[in-house]
Amino acid sequence: MTALLLTRCPALHAEVSRLAAAAGIEPRVLDDPVDALAEWSSAQVVLVGDDVADDLAAVGPGRRGDVHVVGISPPDAVFRAAVWLGAESVLDVAAAGDHLVELLTDVGEPAADGRLVGVVGGAGGVGATTLACALAQAGGERSPTLLVDTDPLGPGLDRLLGLEECPGVRWDELHATSGRLGARALRESVPRGDGPGVLTWSGARGSLDPTTLRETLSAARRGHDLVVVDLARHGGATTIELVGRCDAVLVVAPATLAGVASTARLVAALGGLDAPAGLVLRPGDVSHHDAAAATGLEVVHELGHQRGIAQSVDLGLGPLTSRRGPLARAVRILLPWTTPRAPRRGTARTGAAA
């Protein structure tokens, strides 16, 4: 059961069915309020025609959410029945068709609340984008995963995964849309190979529209178990907001005096990172203890150098091509660390550098 429509009006039936088809669903249609009681609780969304609202209110179904009274120019008198039913809205299908399509967009989708993991470089050229791609590749082997590119100065994450020629929606098209973005629509429209989907730019790059970004991330979380966001170091307010939305943030930093100092300034600029945040160090002379003290972040892993990444990317295979090596070990440690059940503070967990 997904959506239930209760009406005896052929014209209303036809109009709601048309709007439901635009949302990609087919509602279950009943004309008897008594029959509707058996399916009242199981439907994800209930649409009650204004022609039967009074009859249904007289039957007295239990209160529930996601009930809407719909009609073609519904009379004012129907609002009384809507109150009795606990309806969230009364909609004129002619005037509120777009809104009704938005309501129905995610009907049939399983309830999901994917975790949002941000990855940012504490200094330039430290491999944060490579790590973000590897995390998404590993996540995509297990469950629906989306890799989100928020760095307009980056190389383009579709290129790193060999998906630059793959058709699909990019940020350019999303900026031209408005209204609620469906989780299923986003999942099925972005470029996607055998692993994660990717959302990046296709042509000229510019700043991300905040409203579009918020709506896209909301849809991404509803439609994926894991969303990995490649954060821009110089993203300003946009990066600060994104960090605030993340369930966990990984900061990649070189273990050098200059790299740790740069990372400390970044952490301060981001407001100290309220989200659970961990430091991923690249090899250098600065100790884990000193890096943690300077940045205020727990060192969760040391990621060693790995050969052959450039060649793998050039071949369109992405950076994670083996279950062995420093990058594969990093993924095995960092993905569990980003889950809510994983310990986030305390003893640092480190991996051997290669």
Automatic annotation (TrEMBL):
<dbReference type="InterPro" id="IPR022521">
    <property type="entry name" value="Rv3660c"/>
</dbReference>
<protein>
    <submittedName>
        <fullName>Septum site determining protein</fullName>
    </submittedName>
</protein>
<feature type="domain" description="Rv3660c-like CheY-like N-terminal">
    <location>
        <begin position="7"/>
        <end position="112"/>
    </location>
</feature>
<dbReference type="GO" id="GO:0005829">
    <property type="term" value="C:cytosol"/>
</dbReference>
<dbReference type="InterPro" id="IPR027417">
    <property type="entry name" value="P-loop_NTPase"/>
</dbReference>
<dbReference type="GO" id="GO:0009898">
    <property type="term" value="C:cytoplasmic side of plasma membrane"/>
</dbReference>
<dbReference type="GO" id="GO:0051782">
    <property type="term" value="P:negative regulation of cell division"/>
</dbReference>
<dbReference type="GO" id="GO:0016887">
    <property type="term" value="F:ATP hydrolysis activity"/>
</dbReference>
<dbReference type="GO" id="GO:0005524">
    <property type="term" value="F:ATP binding"/>
</dbReference>
<dbReference type="Pfam" id="PF26563">
    <property type="entry name" value="Rv3660c_N"/>
</dbReference>
<dbReference type="InterPro" id="IPR050625">
    <property type="entry name" value="ParA/MinD_ATPase"/>
</dbReference>
<dbReference type="InterPro" id="IPR059050">
    <property type="entry name" value="Rv3660c_N"/>
</dbReference>
